[in-house]
Amino acid sequence: MATTFKTLTPADVVSTRNMLHEAIPLTGAIVSGTYAGENIKNFSHGIFQSVYDYPFLSSSANHIFDLSAGYTTVSGLSGAASIQNAKKLNFYNEMAQLLVGFDENNVIRRFDDDGDFVGTATKINEAYFVSFARLLTKDEIKKGSFSIDLGTTVSHATPFGGGSVDTGGIIRLTDKSGSSGYKVNSPAGEYGILYATGSDLGGAVVDGEGYAKAGLIYYQAGIAVLSASVFGSLLDANVAMDGAGQNIVQSLTASSITGACDNFRRRLYNLSFNNTTELNSTIYFCRVNHNEFNYSSNPTYISSSNIVVKTNPSDIPVTYITTVGLYSPDNELLAVAKLSEPLKKDPTTELALRVRLDY
Amino acid sequence: MGILDNSGDIIFDSVLTDTGRMRLAKGDGSFRIAKFALGDDEIDYGLYDKTNPSGSAYYDVTILQTPVLEAFTNNTSMLKSKLISINNNSLLRLPVIKLFTFEDSGAQMNSSGVFVVPVDQTTVNNLNILGPGVLNGYEPNSSVSHIRVDQGLDTNQISAQESLATDLVETQYIVEMDNRLGRIFPGPDAPVSTNTTVSTNSSIPQATPSFIDDDNIASYYFTLSNNNGYVANVGGTVDSSIQGPRGTKLAWRLGSSLGLRTSDYLFTQIGSLASSEFTNDPPGNNLSAGTWRFIDSTVRVTGVNTGYRVDIPIRFIKSV
Question: Is A47 a residue whose pLDDT tops 80?
Fold first, then answer.
């Protein structure tokens, strides 16, 4: 009996899971400078600002991250005199509620710079929040790959001072222990501690390798929480966050959230991480034996019912495969795979075509 | 669709079809891949050069350079021609499926080169008597007009009296058509009990689609083993479009859908107002230009075993 279908057996189907990683480099010039602010979307509510990789009115623009700042109620910055005080408190609490969770009394925990909730020390009471778009982070940020460079020269006009991490002017925050030392006590998934390094960390308590705790990175949530101290107490000297010479404390109290974010972006030198996509695949091994698929129903295959590729009965039939179709039991085409070039098939050959469907 | 890069290794470009995605989204277990087929839609075997003076290694040089398009996601656009598994490697001929349109057989086409289906009673009445190739879409079983395809070796080098090799006989057909437009009814050879009900109500023994896909394409399966008036052996001594050994034939009539009978919506959406007269062979009446609308469609017949496929043009018409 002639047939056009071949049944797949359980041995022909296998499921796999792979992690794909992409490098995501963001240069500071993109988020502050290149497009003269046209790629920054501010909202009337003023709670956060969105950063795009191109003027956001263009259909070519991609959302890359959102930026905000806030502090907790126990922070010395909290007070009626602070601009947008309630919104800064609310945003901090929203992030803390989602990322740190609640204690046994259902009180929102504060961000903790070493991930140890015991005690009240080592809390991050004032922070910048960088929430990356899913377009960039995909399923999660790859642990141990996150890095952000911040300008730390005092001058507002030259925030990087032409310097480097080694020579001063820039500090680098990385999740250096991320691949093996990440934390799992967050309701939002795994997170790592961001460590700052650089020659400007004169005010910081550094470990033996010269690193100081400076923030947290939530891998699955795609959110970086940066302690505001990266522009203040960790450094040799307070930096000028704006043209008027405001220090970080003044920037977070006397500026709106949008203003504080503008000041942050001006000091963002570079940012990079690898994202992760969890790829679940099913592989179908379409095994073509020597005596199968050697004839075609292509209308050009015959002329007056004569097979055009044969002259004598002893000539072997030959076909050329360009397409593999995967069918349901009721012969409905569910998936298609195309070969990049025709593949010759005749009774002297056997093939195993490996078709992978990703989910 | 773009053309796949064929400058390096052979790679696969795999996608789910729209129907595949629809079934996946249903989450009812209907997305289950159970079998595969191979296709060669892009290949023109006429380029196989058996007389190439450079030798047999050069016979298929042009074919192997054929550009291959990326996969379409439309399930009905792919694998139009499938590869066939037949154990016998010494075959010189393959069977085809061919439209049977002999005069006075009831299976003639209209002189316009299509099968015409008046969809409602008004249109049928306006035509008065339906000429050749005009199938009564309002009361499908009321006339002998039908569509028929024959299967076999279409060659004059072997007598039609010879029997077709068993493994080349098509025993099952898939008929695909737009479910918004019409339904399928048995051919005139149907058993009397199913052939005498002349009505448009639910008692008409119309065929039941095996499934209807996301694009409203209904697929019907008809097999030789069912005594349903659709598939039968042709025989070697009767009229047939097949010159050589014959396999089976498939015959059916077409009824219009409720949507076409009761509404002009589809005629205005995907149809046209006729700008010329419709010729209904005497003694029937013609329809003047501007007094009827039409929708052109096709009915596709595919042999399940042999994979051979033929598209039949259909025109649904309605008086305005």
Answer: yes
> pLDDT digits over A78-89, tens only?
999 999 999 999
Among A294, A232, A265, A251, which residue's Cα sits nearest to residue A52? A265
Q: Which residues of A touch B60 (CB under 8 A)?
A: 318, 320, 344
- Cβ separation A291–B42 shorter than 8 A: no
- What is the count of residue pairs from A and B with beta carbons less than 8 Å apart? 290
Judged by a CB distance cut-off of 8 A, whether residue B50 touches chain A is yes
Report chain B residues whose CB lies below 8 A from the CB of A283.
Answer: none
ipTM for this prediction: 0.85
Whether pLDDT at A321 is above 90? yes
The reply to whether A250 and A296 lie within a common domain is no
pLDDT in tens, A131-168: 999 999 999 999 999 999 999 999 999 999 878 888 88
Clarify whether residues A162 and A207 are in a common domain.
yes
Residues A242 and A301 in one domain: no
Residues of A in contact with B70 (CB under 8 A): 338
Domain of A37 in residue numbering reads as 18-278
Of A217, A243, A278, which residue constitutes the final position of a domain?
A278
Task: Identify whether A1 is part of a domain.
Answer: no
Which residue among B10, B14, B30 sits closest to A357, beta carbon to beta carbon?
A: B14
Alpha-carbon A320 to chain mean position:
43
Residue B202 scores a pLDDT above 50: no
Residues A246 and A340 in one domain: no
A28 and A68 housed in the same domain? yes
Answer with the one of A278, A313, A333 that is the final residue of a domain.
A278
Q: Do B40 and A308 touch (CB under 8 A)?
A: no
- Separation of first and last alpha carbons in chain A: 36
Under a CB-based contact definition with an 8 Å cutoff, are residues A332 and B75 in contact?
Answer: yes
Number of domain units in chain A: 2
